[in-house]
Amino acid sequence: MNMIPERQKMVIEKRGSILLMVLVLIMVVAYVLTKFVERGNVEIQGEGYYVERSRLMLHAWSYLEIAVAVLADVKAIDNAIYAPAQGWANPIEYAQIEVPEGLNVTIEFIDESAKLSINELDEGSLFLLFDEMGFDLDASQTLTNTLLDWIDEDDEARIDGAESREYSTTNFEMHPSNQPLGSLDELSSIIGFRELFFNEDGVPNENFERLSGVVTHYPVQVMNVNSAKPLALLSLAGLNEIQIETIEEYLAGLDGEPGTEDDNYFANGGELSDVIGETERGAPLSQQISVLTVKVTVQEKGSSYSLIGTLSTDLEISENGETGELEYPFLFLELKEESGMNNARTS
Dihedral sign, CA of 10, 14, 16, 22? Predict the structure, then answer.
């Protein structure tokens, strides 16, 4: 069951290719970021805040490129991205990059495929999820139906649901969009969710944090067992508590501590079946990361800047007019700055 050492040995033996990969990816990802660069060039002409912000932007872009290059290198070796236990948890160390003195860089990864798309869940799955989160029958029904009414295409309100007519009698400013959620923050505009998942100031609360660890607005229909939370495995994948505990023990490795060098990961369905046996019918499980969010934060002299990129590891763009025949290792689904006032302002 302890298969990681051999995998890590293979990564180490082939790691030399990362230097070339970084150089290639700098050209590739730079094209994806062209619009950001153009905006940064305008801002860098300013003084004070704008100069500092633009300078930190460039640092963040560079380290995002390094992170993507490392992921591409690991995928080239293992043919898939499974989990940080493959050796990519610290891209800077992997790529043997020296960070300039005085600059602090953190790179965080969020496996969006450890969740399921909230826009794809049916009524039964949503109700079971809210029930497992501890909401009573009435609240679970309201949350399920108001959410489904918000994203479905018709204007017919479900029982315990709400369409535009119902919203017109409330103090809610927004009415159902009748389309998939573009962000989980949009839940604050839905009846039931504003009261239970946000505080009086509209700030996400503990319930929102739990929900965001289980669902995503990205198009994920198969859950990665390597990083899925117990709530997701229990309420959406249909696993029992014994199976979930067995998975956690396996992933933690021999020392029983997650996040250490001997962590395991599942690389195929056969390994999973060997560990937990047959599973009940529920959301399909995979062992690969299909959608991954990378957050790069750079800090220097009391200022900070964060850049967030979400990419699909399954999709590639094989040709682009600006880069000739150069292949993209991944397809960016979204690229944004972190919202708020912290970017390049005093920490």
Answer: negative
